[in-house]
User: What shape does this take?
Amino acid sequence: MATSLIAGAISGALIMQSSVSSAQTAEQEDRFREMEEFLSVYQQVKARYVDKVDDKQLMEGAIQGMLQSLDPHSAFLNKSDFENLNTQIEGEYGGLGLSVTMEQGAVKVIAPTADTPADKAGIKAGDYITHLDDKLIVGGTLDEAVDSMRGTPGTSIKLRVVRLGRDEPFDVNITRAVIELKPVKWKVDKDIGLITITGFSQDTGKDVVDAIRGVERSLGKKPLGYIVDLRSNPGGLLDEAVAVSDAFLDSGEIVSERGRGRGDVQRWFAERDVPGDATQGAPVIVLVDAGSASASEIVAGALQDHHRALVMGEQSFGKGSVQTVLPLSRDTGLRLTIARYHLPSGRSVQEGGIKPDIQVPQLSDPDYAKRVAVRETDLRRHLVNELAATDKELEEDVTKDPRFTKTADELKAEGIEDFQLYYAMETLQRLGKNTMRLAKKDGKEPARN
Assistant: This one.
């Protein structure tokens, strides 16, 4: 039946050729030859393949192959994939807590979600997964790999991991658990509000505003500043990224979405979700790393472009493409890349991700082999000026900082479990105190609630 349907489609295309221009005719003739070749392969497989295969298997494989030739994110969604998509949006599923992508046929970890089985097992951003329960998955589809990693909580799965810097692959056994996506957590430390965002699902923007208010209620005053931790955050919903950015901005464009056509542009602006800056201008540092992707990069990039925050850490992942889900039937759909994100300055996230204003290596990670030199040139001058802090204040721990040569064990012995966060807090304490001094010098007391 599928053969006759394909043949009928080809015949219909040929009938229409008489009414088009010669250029269009040539293009359609090329298309006909390609479809004819596809039909020939289909018929040979049906007739000669060693095992009997059904039409559904062949057609789904052909569709997936076509989409895989475009980019790692476009895919055909069967019924199971649709269910997985809904759980990602709604916030709970059984699995490992990994966000992954496909790179040259291999499954690459974007980031493990904090406090999930994958995170506790030591899986890191940039790891490659080659086998699941000793079965080779290189060359398969991303959705197949994701389906295999998800499952009943309490069951286990063995991952074979290739990590750059390690001589040999190694196996990790992980027990699946219920992954509850509660993307926003906050706490207060040394008069600083730390807001950790692990994903962008429903109500993330609202939860961030609630976190800001919670910090101020906990302190009984305005904090020295905020650290927004977007490390190992693989992204999520665009609207929530806009809402989070809006919480720290008074006005201005946050992100634009640009499609194939010249006029195919959509823009999002601040004050859509939150009136004014919810932090009342408090200093902000945003932490990013190689696992910060997509929506995380929109937030970090928007605050960086508006000179609203100092971005610190490592260069982000660099996923700036936009996917939409197009329904094909009640149970199937097409996830297709339709546009690219552009930040307020016009730069594309896809082109290199977000580069930190201050590059800070995660020295607390024992696998962090490459020591990144932090120099004066790593600072963006306009950010320094915007925060009313001098180069000397920002760099006093940079130029002669012995901690940048210390090992993870040495830092741990000093009680430093997370060097990037520690360094951000040290920097923010200087910025916050400097802001307080300036306010008092001008005869103004810092705002308090």
